[in-house]
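thought: fold this chain, then report.
action: predict
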Amino acid sequence: MNILAVNCGSSTLKCQLFETSPEAIEANSDRQLGRVLIEHIGGPEAVILTGGAELHRSILNHDEALELAINLLTSEPERIEAVGHRVVHGGDLFSAPVEFNEEVVAAIEQLSELAPLHNPENLKGYRAARRVLPGARHVAVFDTAFHQSIPPQAYVYGLPDALWRRYKIRRYGFHGSSHRYVAWRYAQVHGFQRNDRKLITFHLGNGCSVSAILGNRSVDTSMGFTPLEGLLMGSRSGDIDPGAVLHIMARENLSPAEMDALLNRRSGLYGLSMASNDMRTLLDLCRRGHTGAQLAVETFCYRAKKYLGAYWAVLNGCHAVIFTGGIGENAPSIRARICDSLDTLGLRLDAERNEAAQGVESLISAPESEVEIWVIPTDEGLVIARDTLRCLLGAAF
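observation:
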């Protein structure tokens, strides 16, 4: 089956076209037929990245963007039988992918209160795809679904019972497709030899999260009610004392919307460095002695190391630590800082293996390491395509 995986943002569109089947999934032989990324939709000039080429042209809306993407991906759009849509927030309503219908759309709209920056944009992509590909079937694949297995003691906050239940304030977790993919890939590499494997998976990019995985289930994760909680990120603060938030709002006379913008867009690596939210830029600045960049990088790695230790305790040990995402896959020095001085936990990095592993799947732990350390490039689009197929066939996830 030819399946289009769609990830739609406010001014971006990422599309990947896959050919897959139950047999291909089993053999890990799914074929990616192409990918297109379009940025700055609705602006003076959009940027289209496809097949190693970069194009520039005006694109007014997501309908036009999706039509262009499909034409770049295939000369036979009628052969696209299904479309899988990334939906960021499924709340506690969706624990698995589901085919779109009016009730599903209404539920996603209702959940937009929990993800106002994401769910409306995800639905924008769905509606555009329905118009451009009216003959295809459409499936919602939720970022939060993988983390529905987290137990209550890990997902509740210390709020009055009636309050958190009324407003559904609990840990949901995000980046589920990414954490799920690298855990699956690790198991496949090892021949699915055991169902009790204990993994700590780091998705490190502009947004960052870490998960504790037992077998094929998420048992804890760093992002919470929103993607703001947890690790230090590109422009998000990560963990912060709620009292500090209230203090800043009172002293600076900030509205909730202004505080939200400060925590999500002006904090994190950017806020600490006052230079950039891009780890590559910050590492270059560190080499030049930029103190703000040094503090940002050191804090980033310290937070990650602290979560690694916490999830080691949650799992009562660990078989492997896995790095993925733009930073996790391509920044050896960050991986080295996170894993440094963890000998008592059985983690020993091989410096040469680590340095050579940039954007490729690699075992980077030393031979004597009791715990394996891996770089596994993520493939969220492939997870979306596979989940779409399983959903339409009624297969198990």
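thought: worth noting. The chain has two domains: 2-142, 191-375.
final: tokens above.
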